[in-house]
Amino acid sequence: TTQLPRPDQTRIFVVANQKGGVGKTTTAVNVAAALAQKGLRILVVDLDPQGNASTALDIAHTEGTPGVYEALVEDVPLSELVRPAPQLPGITVLPATIDLAGAEIELVSLVARETRLKKALAAHLEERERADDRIDYVVIDCPPSLGLLTVNALVAAREVLIPIQCEYYALEGLGQLVRNIELVRAHLNQDLEITTILLTMYDARTRLSAGVAEQVRSHFGPKVLATAIPRSVRISEAPSYQQSVLTYDPGSSGALSYLEAAREIAQSGTSDPTTSERGA
Ligand code: ADP
Ligand code: MG
């Protein structure tokens, strides 16, 4: 299999959509798994107290397990918290536990509450780079809300990946997400940009899916990946075996589509600062 090119600097993606159940976690896990399978080095940050990404990557995250809560609230360095994904060489994971549910409130009273993840991540990336162990991609999985955890992710990232479920009301709420991203960009992170839209749970047999896809493509243009992720039982089964679909059923349409989406992402390369301003 052909390997994918390494980006010239670490690309930091936040997978965001304040709606639950649209495929954020599935996308974070499987894009990370696909990139890793192609020889790249990935850090997955699980920022959802439910810890679904940690589960799918086979990382322990029972209550009290040190993870992203300790990084955000107690300033514990990431190097003491990240764990290698047992089945996916190249992936390390910053796990989330249910303790993180309290962080949304505890963060409110902390100094620099919006930039805590950014600082922790920057220190870790630098440390890994110095150790000749550079991370190519950081993929941050968000909870289904626009609270302080998601704001921390939007401040830490450079690129937003929005999964959109090909269902009724798919576009509802997207305006609010886009406005929040613009607010973060104006006040907290001028480098932030929506670079990638991924259509998920696409059902080629229905006019509904085709209609949603058409609407999303006419609104977001070339940011929408050509690959749409099909609705697939194999994709939804994989996490209950603590697996990505790439390891659970490598030949399935779900696995192949996530590989293809990852290839598109890798080939889109780093965004060129001279052309990415888009009328800011
Ligand atoms: P979110 O993180 O946005 O809440 P998830 O990734 O957890 O969404 O997905 C919601 C549910 O849909 C999960 O049960 C997941 O297994 C399932 N799912 C996600 N993508 C697909 C797909 N392409 N085909 C079938 N089921 C999917
Ligand atoms: Mg999720």
Automatic annotation (TrEMBL):
<comment type="function">
    <text>May play a role in septum formation.</text>
</comment>
<dbReference type="InterPro" id="IPR027417">
    <property type="entry name" value="P-loop_NTPase"/>
</dbReference>
<feature type="domain" description="AAA">
    <location>
        <begin position="11"/>
        <end position="194"/>
    </location>
</feature>
<dbReference type="Pfam" id="PF13614">
    <property type="entry name" value="AAA_31"/>
</dbReference>
<protein>
    <recommendedName>
        <fullName>AAA domain-containing protein</fullName>
    </recommendedName>
</protein>
<comment type="similarity">
    <text>Belongs to the ParA family.</text>
</comment>
<dbReference type="InterPro" id="IPR050678">
    <property type="entry name" value="DNA_Partitioning_ATPase"/>
</dbReference>
<dbReference type="InterPro" id="IPR025669">
    <property type="entry name" value="AAA_dom"/>
</dbReference>
